[in-house]
What we know:
This protein is mainly alpha-helical. The chain has a single domain, classed as MetI-like (MetI-like fold). Helix content is 84%, strand content 0%. It has helices at 2-23, 25-40, 43-54, 58-82, 86-94, 99-137, 142-151, 155-184. The longest helix has 39 residues, at 99-137. It is elongated and about 70 Å long. The two termini are 37 Å apart. The model has no long low-confidence stretch (mean pLDDT 87).
Amino acid sequence: MTTTIGFALSIIIGIFFGALIGMSRLAYDALYPILVGISSIPKVALIPIFVVWLGAGTGPAILTACVISFFPIVVNVATGLATAEPELEDILQALNASKLDIFWNVGLPRTMPYLFAAMKVAISIAFIGSITSETIASNRGIGNAMLIATTNFDMPLAFAALMLISITGVVFYFLFVLLENRMTGWAQRNKKTR
């Protein structure tokens, strides 16, 4: 649950900052270096800070999952918007379309394949963040169960926790594949030609 909440927050924050950076050169110049700096900080080093701010429990796990997984979403959304065909934007501007109309009809569809690619990567690293945080600073969750299991040399429980993480990660990945096929089928190569 901590992974899902943290990942959902990373999607919201990532889309917001990605759209801002992708649509504004000023925002790109001002925010992108800061985001790269935040992304390069080892997230394990942030967990004790999150514990001081939020206390031990699920709060640090949610925040760690969010912080570790939002950067791929920001980068891919910004890339999708920045690589939108300028000809399409020019045509819509010639038809007196607003910036919102251009975003809705050109930018957003162009960004969707990039967003789904980012989400498939980000869900995996969100699990890493939340499990690491639960192992270090929580008294509940799968990470804590793995810590207790390994401390007590209960290898069946430790491997069961690992299998649960793995299966959940695969389920989320294929859920995003299904959503991607449903929402961006127009952007994919015909599977018969592969």
